[in-house]
Write a structure and sequence with these properties.
Elements lengths: L1 H20 L13 H4 L5 H29 L18 H13 L10
Helix pairs in contact: 1-3
């Protein structure tokens, strides 16, 4: 279930990026949002309204999917094995620190003149 929702979230994110890029901005954007690129299908205002509504719908869907994924994965890191990388340092780090202390030469005693 989580994998399916993650794939849908990625697809919605890509669609959201695409619909934002084709909107006409003050600088012209990619120019697809104007009425000239669409021909007689829609006017410039109709295209802008459609793209604005599409952006809102995709943004709301993206937020809902992200919150759903968060709720589904909330209990995943509380198990015995855990997925939280900050909960415990890796075992290799502890072994490396212990061997480093064992290999460190002791400081020589200072001689008094």
């Amino acid at each position: 279930m989580t994998t399916f929702l993650l794939v849908v979230t990625v697809l919605v994110a890509l669609a959201l990026i695409g619909i934002i890029l084709i909107q006409r901005s003050e600088g012209g954007g990619l120019g697809i949002g104007s009425g000239q690129g669409v021909g007689a299908f829609m006017t410039g205002r109709g295209t802008a309204t459609l793209l604005t509504r599409g952006t809102g719908v995709l943004a709301a869907l993206f937020m809902i999917l992200c919150l759903t994924l968060d709720v589904l994965n909330r209990g995943a890191s509380t198990g015995a094995t855990g997925h939280d990388i900050l909960s415990q340092p890796p075992a290799a780090t502890q072994d490396t620190a212990a061997s480093h202390k064992a290999n460190t030469p002791s400081t020589p005693a200072q001689h008094k003149p």
